[in-house]
Every structure is written in structure tokens, then in C-alpha cells.
Amino acid sequence: MNEEEIKNILHHFDEKAVEMAQHFDEKAAETQHHFDDKTAEMAQHFDDKAAETQQHFDVVAEGLQSDIAKVAEGVCANTERLDRVEGKLDAFIDETRTNFDEARVSMKFSYAELSRRMTHLESDVSDLSTRVEQLESSSSAR
């Protein structure tokens, strides 16, 4: 091979190297552009999903707040009702205690009265028994 052929081969090699470098640069730029596009798409996708999730969370939170408010109202209503029932129960207990005390006093009085009447009847029976015995003895003696 002569010098001219070597120069041609080297020149051809240099041209191909330049073409290859240009091709590589073009492909690198295409790849970078593709990567940038995909990165932007992914960022937009994440932003969209974040907004969607936030909106869903807001709807759920609003529903929960409404439910919690209803439960709180129910608890307040039940507390008020329990307070009224407790008041009625306390009044009933006081009334029952008073009635029981009155019944006890009345029973003591009735028992004392019955005891007095019983004692009086026993005395009358004893007197009558004595009179019957006297009558029987006077009638037997005749």
C-alpha cells in the first residue's frame, strides 16, 4: 500500500469518525430530549395523581367531619336525656325513701295501736272468763 492509499484510508476513517461522532451526538440529544419529555410526563402524572388524591382526601374528610358532627349531636342529646332520666330517678328515689319512712312510721303506729287493742281484748276476755267462772260456780252452787 502506498502513501496515497494510506492517506485515503485515514481520511475515510476520519470522515467516518466524524460521522459517528455526529451520529452519537444526535442520538445523545434525542435520548436527552426523550428523557426530558418522559420526566415532564412523569412529573405531570405525579402532580395529577397528587391533586386527585388531595381532592379525594378533602371529600372524605368533609364527609367525616359531617359524620363526627352528627355523632357529637347524638352524644349531646343522649347526655341531656340521661341527665333528665337521672333527675327523675333521683326524685323517684327520694320519693320512695320518703314513702318508705312514712310507711315505717305508720306501721309502728299501727303496731302500737294493735298491741294496745290486743291487750285490751285480752283483758276483756280475762274479765269475761272470770265472770263466766263466777256465773258457773254460782249456778252450780244453787
Compact description:
The protein has 142 residues and is mainly alpha-helical. The chain has one helix at residues 3-141.
Explain this structure.
- With 142 residues, this protein is an all-alpha fold.
- 98% of the residues lie in helices and 0% in strands.
- The chain has one helix and no strands.
- It has one helix at 3-141.
- The radius of gyration is 59 Å and the shape is rod-shaped.
- The model has no long low-confidence stretch (mean pLDDT 93).
- How are helices and strands ordered from N to C? H
What class would the helix/strand composition place it in? Answer: mainly alpha
Which overall shape is indicated by the principal axes computed on the Cα atoms? rod-shaped
How would a textbook summarize the main sheet?
none
Supply Rg: 59 Å
Task: Give helix % range.
Answer: over 70%
Low-confidence stretches: none
Total helix count? 1
Tags for this entry?
142 residues, 98% helix, rod-shaped, mainly alpha
Describe the secondary structure blueprint for this structure.
Blueprint: H1 3-141
